[in-house]
Design a protein that fits this description.
The structure is a homodimer. Chain A has about 325 residues and is α/β, with parallel strands linked by helices. Chain A has helices spanning about 50-55, 130-140, 160-170, 180-190, 205-215, 230-235, 265-270, 285-300, 315-325, and strands at about 5-10, 25-30, 40-45, 70-80, 90-100, 100-105, 110, 150-155, 175-180, 195-200, 220-225, 240-245, 275, 305-310, 330-335. The interface of A and B includes residues 236 and 278 of A.
Chain lengths: ~325, ~325
């Protein structure tokens, strides 16, 4: 036997938040590598809201995780053995693998960390990974932002939101962030230079008026990571020809019943707005350009980036819940 | 006194379908024209689903009709008296006036029928009016259609839908129409050359499968006039990068409770689709071009156009209900 390792797999589809009856741990044994395979020792894996969506049996941009399969997730780690022509033991690699100590891979969607890398390895799961690239292409392309526009960012203290807001500030936009604690709001104002912030918890029930006050010229772009009540309030404040970047809908991922679209759906027509479903994978061919630009901005100290690393394979599910109760700030990862 | 005439006015906001307790008739007296005013004897006025929306007190692309005001509507008629420099008695004019025998106007949004007009006067409320231009710019611009694309048209036997479908056929698209009776479906196939049709009433509960069968290559553009169940079924069948032209939502206009957006809202993200709120008024500067193109297509017999004219001012509300119970085919107008 080559190796034994632990992995989280989908035992049953969650109804509501994920429990340890839904996602269980098992030990996997690998006896030998086939031609074209390689074995990665994962250093970190990613905890993302999207993973909760993949646990449901609904059509989406990726197939649902099959019952019995490992929980799909980005990882970064070291190749420990390889029968794949493009990878050798010792290479640092990142890509779509799973919540597991080791990953058996055929190289598909796997990328090498550059040899001259100066950044912590886990940056390849965050600012240079899907999260950073989502913010980058969402703001720089999909949103069709120009200097002077007002950007309203939901989940603004989150990984995508905090980066996206800073990128828009760098472009000369009026940037308003929504977050769920005063501490997060303070961070957005004091450290990231947002123009205004809204605590959507204390302003609940009054969201539309709060947005109106923070966006005196209306909302040109609403960057939606959350859906639900905040999306509805945003729609009441959009300008004519506004863009809504539909990037996520975290408020609905744990729902056990079908959740309808926004009640203020009519405003999309009334304002001749555009809702753009946004998948970072559509920008795959420009990933290197995007990551390069982000590295440059980091080096020049023009963007800041928060992350939280939870230590210990066994803490994965507890850490995963932090994404949905608002208790994390920035990109959440697990150190294996 | 110059004139006495009857008009429909908004007495109270309807809850559900419009009744004669909501919209009442009164007699108006005009004593004299002020400088800049003119008086139009209306020959026809327009009955449109959008008018029901204007009766609600919700923010939209036009302000709600104020309680006590005439019901807003397009009309076409003859100038009978004028103190406006641009209009003279005898001119034929069309524009946004109201459900009334005569209209007092200041010329705002009023256009003259061309002197060399060869078409029936009521064409200026239909194929050369908002309906025809909506189909024209919706299909030729907003939808971003190209030859070979599949277009799914809701309310396809309606005024906008039937024209829009023919325009897309002329462009070389695979055009699938949804309508509510077999007669309408037959008309779309036999007379208008649609590639496939779906009777959404007999297929209710099975809509998504019916769309899948009629659109073997998926849906590239869904032209939404109806919202509700049909929109939800369409969203389950869109291709990646599909466009949804959001032109109307007639299934929800008579609702007395807030109606949510589509339950399959997530598919917009999953397919990186674009929802485009569509207002024909955004194309105002190209109206003449559009009407000219439509006149040319009519002359060359490349489009057909159905309309229904109900005779008699007193029949307005009865006629208006036909829009919502599916009993009209084509553009509905009232002959005063």
């Amino acid at each position: 036997m080559l190796i034994q390792y632990k992995q989280y797999y989908l035992h049953q589809r969650p109804k509501g938040p994920t429990t340890d009856s839904d996602v269980k741990v098992r030990t996997v044994e690998v006896y030998s590598l086939a031609e074209g395979q390689l074995l990665i020792k994962n250093e970190y894996f990613s905890l993302d809201p999207a993973i909760r969506g993949w646990m449901d049996d609904v059509p989406s941009y990726m197939p649902p995780i099959v019952l019995g399969d490992v929980i799909r997730s980005s990882t970064v780690g070291t190749v420990v053995d390889s029968k794949h022509p493009d990878f050798s033991a010792g290479d640092m690699v990142y890509g779509l693998n799973g919540w597991e100590e080791y990953s058996l891979s055929d190289g598909y969607f796997l990328t090498k960390v550059p040899q001259d890398n100066q950044f912590p390895l886990h940056y390849y799961l965050s600012v240079f990974g899907a999260v950073g690239l989502t913010a980058y292409f969402g703001i720089h392309d999909t949103a069709e932002l120009k200097a002077g526009d007002t950007l309203l960012m939901s989940a603004a203290a989150g990984a995508v939101g905090s980066l996206g807001g800073q990128l828009a500030k760098n472009m000369g936009c009026h940037v308003v962030g929504m977050a769920g604690t005063d501490d997060k709001c303070q961070w957005l104002m004091d450290d990231l230079g947002f123009d205004a912030v809204i605590n959507y918890k204390t302003e609940s029930g009054n969201l539309s008026a709060a947005i109106a006050a923070a966006c005196p010229d209306g909302v040109d772009v609403y960057f939606d990571n959350v859906g639900g009540e905040i999306l509805d309030a945003a729609l009441l404040n959009i300008n004519s020809n506004a863009r809504i970047v539909f990037c996520g809908s975290i408020s609905t991922y744990n729902a056990s019943e079908p959740v309808p679209g926004p009640y203020n759906w009519w405003q999309v027509l009334a304002k001749s707005a555009v809702v753009k479903g946004f998948l970072v994978s559509n920008y795959f061919e420009q990933f290197e350009t995007g990551a390069g630009a982000l590295a440059q901005l980091l080096t020049e100290d023009k963007i800041q980036f928060k992350y939280e690393i939870v230590d210990g394979f066994d803490n994965t599910l507890t850490a995963f819940h932090k994404l949905f109760d608002g208790s994390n700030t920035g990109k959440l990862m697990l150190k294996v």
